[in-house]
Structure formats: structure tokens, C-alpha cells
Amino acid sequence: MIFIPVLVVGFLFLMYQVLNGFRFGVVSYLVFIYFSSLICSLILYLFFSYDEKYNIQLEPMIYFSLGLCVVFIGFFRFRDHRLQHIVLNNIRFIKFVEKAIVPFTFGAIVFFLWHALTVLSGDIEANRNAVAAGEANYLGSAGIVNSIFSLVANLFLLNMLYAFLNLTDAYPGARSSKAFMHLILSTVYIFYIMAYVGRDGVVFWGMSLIFFYLLFKDFVTEQKLKFLKRAALILAVPAIFVFMMISVKRFGGGGAGDLVLALMDYAGQQALNFNDHYLVDPPLALGAISFAPVVNFESYVLGSLPAMFDKEAWNQVFLDNGVMPWVFTTLVGSFMYDFGRVGGLIALTVLSVLAYCASRDVNKHGFIKFSDLLLFILLFQVVSWGVFYYRQYSAFFYLLSLIALMTLFKCSGSSSKVILSKVDRLSE
């Protein structure tokens, strides 16, 4: 049964490659992320005795495959070979945001780096377990400072976006030095996650960097692409070292074999976990897991008591069925927890429709407006990171901030417009 999602996603990948003129672009990359995860699932199931741990059944695999089909289809409207221009409307405000985020991001790096060094200098495994169990909150005493810098850290994609904008020739004031600065500042997310004894920050930062490279590579000269690759390598090597260090401390006690298995499990457990979770019938969270701030918005505004989600009781339902709660089950699993099987598919459909809308001008006219670009970046982040779970559950104010920026640029019309165009490789 585990072959079903592997074959479905593999077929979707091939189908999109045909639609995209056999170019490996951003949507190719999105589907390939999930395909790679499913290949790891298959290897674990066939060669590492995971078939003894998981009883894979037909219905969960069909639902899982359907959920992925639903969310991918909306992205299929985006075709890299049709995108010729990026329209930067309200360039003055774009430049204002670029300047404003620099000091805040620098402050956030210093703040989280200090805390990261503190928790990583001790027993990493014990510190991680304490954080996961809610027994330790190393940043809790920082209060509002932690909240502000956490928002800044979650906005690291803006720094990464500005890094690539500064590599294009048409962007006002573009310089490679500024691009490198913004790329360095984008690592704030790595330090942010490290401060909570996590390694996800390295993975998500790397995934985002590849996305932006694929999106912008045709808008940047070969010379600047070479500069970008060197800069990315300079930052990626220490990031990978940190990732491996944490992994070794947490999972490498039995040697290299245990570490390799742990890394493969990290990448491929999702579909297997989803199967078991699908077969359990917990009470619907009704948004309390992935969208708690939205669910409790009335209480924030009116000062009433928020609706309480009984986390312990929810966990116990899974434990009573011999299933481990709070494991990776992908975006499909996260939405199923909150809205049920039908509601989960509806939530995935909404994401798909938004992706379809963000790509409308690309397909019809060969350009994308800055507001739509921000929306597309956000949706790509949600779905690509969703190969693990709905990661933005704790980043509500980050989502609000990006939505506010999108709205502002959407309402700006074509004021102070700058157009970025693809590089003519022949003339270059």
C-alpha cells in the first residue's frame, strides 16, 4: 500500500515536468520534496523492518494521496518558462521595508545566538526533551523582547527575498554586498530554532534558499549566480555542521548506522505515521491545534476565556490505540486533526485555490506582481514545510504581517513601479 502515494506523486511530478517544458523549477522542487520523502518511507518500510511497526492500509494511503493531489494542482498553474517579469510596485515602500528589517534582524540574531549557545553547551538531548515536554522555557523570561524577535526571525524569508532582489540589475541600489548581508541576516531563523534546541531551522532555511534560487536564477547574471553559490556555501557549511552536531548528540549514540537511520526516519516517517493516525478517531480540534490564535480571537478581543483544547485527553486517545501522538504526519495530517477528513480536504483546497490565483498573471501575461509574489512565497513555504507538518501553527503574527504587506502592495496599484526581467543569456 505504501506504493500508492509514491506512484501518485511520482506521476504528478512527471506530469508537471511536461507542462513546465521539462524545466526543473520551483513547483518541480515542491513536488520532488514530497516524492523524496515518500521514497525514504518506502525504503524504511521495505528494508528497515518498519513493516513490523506500521500496518499500512489502503484507505489512509488513498486519502493521503488525494490530499497531496488537491494541494499540488493549484501550484501547477505556475510555469517557470512563462514567467518573464517580476513587477515591483510601490518600490519606495519596498526599499523602506528593506532598510527597516536590517537592525531588527541583527538584534534578533544576537539575542537568539546567545540563548542558542547557552542551551547547546550543555546536555543537548536533555535540554531538548525538557523543551518538548514543556518543563523548560529558556526564553520565557524575555517576554515582549522574545515575542518581537521571534516575529522578526519568522520573517527571514523577507531577508532572503531582498538578497535575491539585490542580485538583479534592475533593482534600485542593487549590490552584491547587500545581497550577501541579507543572506547572512536570513540565518536568524537557524539561530531562533537552535535557541529551542531544534535543528529544523537549518532544514527550512536550506529549503527556502533552494526555492529562491530556482525562482530567481533566470533573473540574475551568470557572474552573480557564481557569487551567490559561493556565498551560500560559506553559510551552508557551518549550518550543516550544526545540524549534524545536534543529530549526533540526539541520535548518534549507536554509531554512524544509527545516525543514518535517524536521518532517514526524519525525512520519511510522515506517510507511515499518517497511516496510523488516520485509523484513530480523536475528537476534532476544530482549529485549536493549527490555528489556535484564530480560534481564540474573540477571547483576545473581548477579554473572555479562550476555548480550551484538552491536549492531554487528545494525546490519550492515540496512546490508548498504541499510536504515538505529536509526530510528523505532513500538512495533510495537521489539517485532518483540526477539521476532520472532509474538512481537511477543504482546507487543502483553499491553499490550492490561493496558489492558483497567485499564478494567474504568470500563466496569462508572463509576469507576477509583488503582492502575488509574496503570496506565492508564503504558500510555497506552508506546503513545502508541510512535508513534516503545518509549521506555521506558532507563527500567527508572522502570517498577519505578511498578509498586511500583501494587502498594502495589492492596493498600491502601479505606483513607483520597477520591472525585473529575465536575463538574455545569449547577449550576456
From TrEMBL:
<feature type="transmembrane region" description="Helical">
    <location>
        <begin position="6"/>
        <end position="22"/>
    </location>
</feature>
<feature type="transmembrane region" description="Helical">
    <location>
        <begin position="203"/>
        <end position="220"/>
    </location>
</feature>
<feature type="transmembrane region" description="Helical">
    <location>
        <begin position="29"/>
        <end position="48"/>
    </location>
</feature>
<keyword id="KW-0472">Membrane</keyword>
<keyword id="KW-1133">Transmembrane helix</keyword>
<feature type="transmembrane region" description="Helical">
    <location>
        <begin position="142"/>
        <end position="167"/>
    </location>
</feature>
<keyword id="KW-0812">Transmembrane</keyword>
<protein>
    <submittedName>
        <fullName>O-antigen polymerase</fullName>
    </submittedName>
</protein>
<feature type="transmembrane region" description="Helical">
    <location>
        <begin position="342"/>
        <end position="358"/>
    </location>
</feature>
<feature type="transmembrane region" description="Helical">
    <location>
        <begin position="395"/>
        <end position="412"/>
    </location>
</feature>
<feature type="transmembrane region" description="Helical">
    <location>
        <begin position="370"/>
        <end position="389"/>
    </location>
</feature>
<feature type="transmembrane region" description="Helical">
    <location>
        <begin position="179"/>
        <end position="197"/>
    </location>
</feature>
<feature type="transmembrane region" description="Helical">
    <location>
        <begin position="100"/>
        <end position="122"/>
    </location>
</feature>
<feature type="transmembrane region" description="Helical">
    <location>
        <begin position="232"/>
        <end position="251"/>
    </location>
</feature>
<feature type="transmembrane region" description="Helical">
    <location>
        <begin position="60"/>
        <end position="79"/>
    </location>
</feature>
